[in-house]
Amino acid sequence: MVNKKIVTLMSILGFVFFTTFAWAMTAVPPNPYATDVIAYQAGSNAVSGYTDPSTALGEPSRVTAAWSGGETDVTMFNPAWNTDQIVSIGAGGYLILGFDHPVYDDPYNPYGIDLLVFGNAFFKDSDYPHGVAGGIWAEPAKISVSQDGSTWYDISSVTADNLFPTQGYTNTSGPYGNDGTNPSNFLKPVDPNIDWKGKSYSELLALYDGSGGGTGVDISETGLEWIQYVKLWQPEVDSWSAEIDAVADVAPVPIPAAVWLLGSAFMGVIGMRHKRL
After folding, report:
1. Is 88 exposed, middle or buried (0-12, 13-18, 19+ CB in 10 A)?
2. Which of 148, 170, 262, 274 has the most CB atoms less than 10 A away?
3. What pLDDT is recorded for position 10?
4. What are phi and psi of 6, to 5 degrees?
């Protein structure tokens, strides 16, 4: 005789599964990148021609113009520099970007990093053109975050347009190549504890582990559970101008809820059957 409890539980499980599946098929997923420019003020030394804030919307650049003509891949030694790819902030300037959803301090985010800020920093090549990280060329901007776009909380642990430089593809053959075919993951942070100094390009690719780079921000230092607005800004005394390409919501890596639900229900069925036997 068929166990009625098992039949009932399986019926409920099937309803939940198909309801979840139908919702997933119709729901519009949030955009993992900034979708709105809330405000922009070019600083006193912002770079001319790089003052279009909309260039900071959407995903970071994977390809940029080559100095010799044509295009080249964006790598950790070869940053984006087109006027339609980055926006300059400058001394006393600021850029405020908004997401179409809350960015959470998610415990499942890799390395505790919740937000990524992409600039056009790059590793200095101490063995040109082979690609050996002898330092980093950075033009730092301060980072603040907010839930409402009005009350701001400063991030003190990291600065924008700094570590880690953008890597557009995971298989670009050299630091100045244009043959990449496998896009890197712009929603996955680099392990902030890697030892990058003096490393070769191939060693750095391995350390990036598929990540597309970006400055990693841990929201927890503000005490907030989530944010929706990011402000990149520079004090008036700065003698440089930071450039911003994009900001991204880090993708968590949990066991999917539907899988967890199915697994829990299945184990419940096994447990009931075992008890009955």
Report:
1. buried
2. 170
3. 55
4. -65, -45
In angstroms, the Cα distances linking 61 to 14, 73, 247 are 43, 9, 12
Q: Which amino acid is at 35?
A: T
Gap between the Cα atoms of 53 and 261, Å rounded: 43
Residue 14 has pLDDT above 80, yes or no: no
181: in domain = yes
3-state secondary structure of 69: coil
Q: 212 is in which domain, residue-wise?
A: 33-250
- Residue 146 phi/psi, 5-degree rounding, is -155, 155
Give the distance from CA 189 to its chain's centroid.
Answer: 6
pLDDT digits (tens, 9 = 90+) for 126-178: 999 999 999 999 999 999 999 999 999 999 999 999 999 999 999 999 999 99
Length of the chain (residues): 277
Q: Evaluate whether residue 264 is within a structural domain.
A: no
Q: What is the rounded distance in angstroms from the CA atom of residue 247 to the CA atom of residue 231?
A: 10
Establish whether the linkage from the previous residue to 129 is cis, with ω within 30° of 0: yes
Residues 175, 177, 179, 181: is their CA dihedral positive or negative?
positive
Cα-Cα end-to-end distance for the chain: 13
- Residue 115 near residue 227, CB atoms below 8 Å: yes
* Beta-carbon count within 10 A of 257 CB: 9
* 178 CB-near residues (< 8 Å, 6+ apart): 63, 66, 70, 71, 72, 73, 172
pLDDT digits (tens, 9 = 90+) for 106-130: 999 999 999 999 999 999 999 999 9
Contact in structure between 163 and 191 (CB atoms under 8 Å): no
pTM of the model: 0.84
- In a domain? residue 105: yes
User: How many domains, the chain?
Assistant: 1
